[in-house]
Amino acid sequence: MILTSPYASAAPQALYGKSVVVTWQEERQQKFPGEEQMRFVAAAAEFDVYVSDVGRPFSRLRFSMLNRVISDEIISTPAGHEAGYAWFP
Hints:
- The protein contains no helices and 5 strands.
- By secondary structure, the protein is mainly beta.
């Protein structure tokens, strides 16, 4: 989930025309409601933010786990944000 705020300030001009990329890996034990057995889950994630030459941010959050990719892209617009989700088997 990506949190946004109507009170966020503009990106510093030093970031205009640049990207910031954060990657991480997770390993955890989990179970879904109704399941008794815990299972091991390993996942990789990447969060990218590109700030255009005029200060408009574009971001993408991707998770990969068990041969599946979850992608969420957000494009900042003057009226707010637009988001889309894509699942790839």
